[in-house]
Amino acid sequence: MIEQLPQQLVNGLTLGGVYALLALGYSMVYGVLRLLNFAHGDVFMVGAFVGQGVLALLLADNGGNGEAALALPPWAVIAAMLLAAMLVSGALGVAIELVAYRPLRAAPRLSPLLGSLGVSFFLQNAVLLIASARPRAVATERLLPAELGFGLGTAQLSPVRLLVMFSAVALMVALHVLVRRSRLGRAMRAVAVDRDAAAMMGVDVDRVIAGTFFLGWALAGAAGVLMGLVFNRVWHLMGFTAGLKGFTAAVVGGIGSMPGAMAGGLLLGLAAGIVSPTYKDLIAFALLLLVLLLRPAGLFGQGARPKV
Amino acid sequence: MGELKIGQDRWAAEAAARSDRRRQRWSEIVRRVETANPLLLVGALAALGAVVVAAGNDYLLRVAAMACVMAILALGLSVIVGLVGLLDLGYIAFAAVGGYTYALLSSDQLGVQLPSWAGLSLAVLLAVGMALLLALPALRLSGDHLAIVTLGFAQVVLLLAVSMSRVAVPWSTTPLNVTGGPNGIVGIARIRLLGWEVAGQRPSFILLLAVLGLLFLGLTALDRSPLGRAWRATREDALAAAALGLPVRQLKLLAVAAGAATAGLGGALYAAWQGAVFPTDFGLDVLLTLYAMMLLGGLGSLPGAVLGALLLAVVPELLRSPATAHMLFYGGLAVALLSVGRRGAVALGLAALLGVLVRLTAPWLWSDAVTIQGWLAVPRDATTAGNLAFVAAVGLLLAASRVRRAPVQVVLLALALYGLIFAWEVRLAEQPSVARQLLFGAALVILVIYRPYGLLGRPRVEVG
Q: What is the pTM (predicted TM-score) of this model?
């Protein structure tokens, strides 16, 4: 039990990185729109499929001698997978926002939530129609052979897990810089505080919201690629539970707070990695309930006072 | 209406008056239904039921019985979400508790065979107890946090149903099979009440319909009582309701209990009717369907919940047989195009022209790569072509909905139409279950955009 702990820590950190990326997107969208976006996990799934598609494309066997070879060096393939998935997911997110969410800005609170459930259903079944119900294999082994890994005490650090941790941290740092330093980031924070006031100060709210969706869903797409690499497969239902975990992480950390989303994701990943896999959903739920009861605003939340 | 204001165009005024009249007629219907004697509505239901019983084929009875179960569940959901405004995404778990409790108490799974009345009451009690256990801590949360906690709760209940097939018990060495895991519990005894054994489709349907009618009457009475008004006040503004001296917390707990009792009863009756329960009977897709039913009927309207449930339980059944599915698909396309107006008609003409052109030139251009099926030219790799056509059609439709310039929009629509028909013929018609769910998702999005208050709902202003 105890000698497995370091390995479980590594696994938990990997999973936590993916959850944190998902939670960040959730948190950003919730921040500007107060929308529980149930389609988030499904765009994550689409991102995973795009990554798998790019990998399969670049693995095409040249010469036809059976042995498929990479058309590019591994780092370039991974970069291409991540970039393609982020672009497609981000663009998809903007399109979904335009068609399904923008008409509902003034609608009752329940409407966008149900609309996002509809989008989630549609995406799942569209992918099911196109890719069939059988999970698709992701040839991680070709990209990052396990021999490259090294042991750390009793834990085995495989290259995939290193990649996931590294990319997750890099993306989070990039996002942090973007939100803190750029014009778009400042506008996003302004809209999150008060949409009407921001509009009156000359912020183009529609564009800021579209930008937020793009960023949030690009992160989800990247998370999808990483998840596919870790588990060696992608399938059309992978988005739902992952999305739920991402949201749980966002709420645990304090929704709307970015450091909170990161902390929540890592916490959830560690809890899921250390406890037995069968009951990890139970653990996630217990953790959620505990945090919300003790600190209803989440670990890093500001504790919004109701506006009357 | 006749008076023209200065600066107002006559045509615009007439159009506005027309749309006003139409809206007024509809809100008049809504008002009538709202204030109607609930016995009348139950009478209408009974008449509908009598027709089904008289027509009496087994398939029809099964569909009707399923519609009744969904309507019962939608009623309970409508109390929690519609009347009190608690966004409860764990509602389906209450039905699961009811169904599994009844199943365990009236099958060989644990070797317990209680009489039906005891099984049903225990199912309801346990569902209510479970709901209160969840609600007591969870009601401290508001809005979205409540939604996510209840959703997590539903996932956990589902997880327990799947994983409790090998439970270690202290007094025995062999693990106890409680829920049967994914295989569920089968061989559940029929309901036997006052010496009447409910066997066969016809009596089951009559029982379910009777329960639905009674529940509808009871909940409507609650809804129209001072309690119902207090619930609505809580929904509109909990802070103001509390300031008026209403016991907001107790009101919410009471609504959760009423909803959970309905769900527990619905779940138990469902288990008895089906003779078995499986974890998938209480999955998230069922919850989503219930939400869609409630929303279609109108949030906060009990007759709306029943109407929505009946509509959504029956219409997808029509998609099962290929012939009616084709009819519905093309009929739906025609209605959608008509509602777009003249541009739709032009687009349809263009799409037909495109179809004829492709049909005539394709065999000549790529003679060996296409086959002719009906009036479509299908490439050899039909699956890929159909998938591409589907993605392209969805993209084109999205683009068409954003473009304002008429010629561009018409061309986009025509292309989308051709792609959609191609994808339907080549891919979607082969996979009716996928097609149904795709349609369901798209319909949900369109519904919340164009009728956010549902068929029998009332527009209202939200606070905060």
A: 0.81
